[in-house]
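Hey, resending since the last one bounced:
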Amino acid sequence: MASRFGVLAEVLETWRAAFDERRVDDLVDLFSEDALFQGLSPRLLAAEALAGFADVTFRTVTPQDPAGTPLPVRLSVVAQHLDATWRIRQYHVSRVG
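The structure tokens again:
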């Protein structure tokens, strides 16, 4: 079995080729039936669930660097209304650049 990175690289290369060649049916086949497809704005997933993303800057604060070194990231979340409040159901962060 390929490594986890190898599997993702293969899936993303297949996606890229289908996207570049505008092979819509092949693109659709890459997604599971219940895939979360997040566009450019918050998306209503169900009556009580939303998905969205934000550009965020984390800072690593240390005694030597009290202002913190900036780390720009892209944050995506799925929020669900549970127990009369909204809670994060899924959280994903990736580096920008």
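Strands lie at 43-46, 49-62, 65-82, 85-95.

Sorry for the duplicate.
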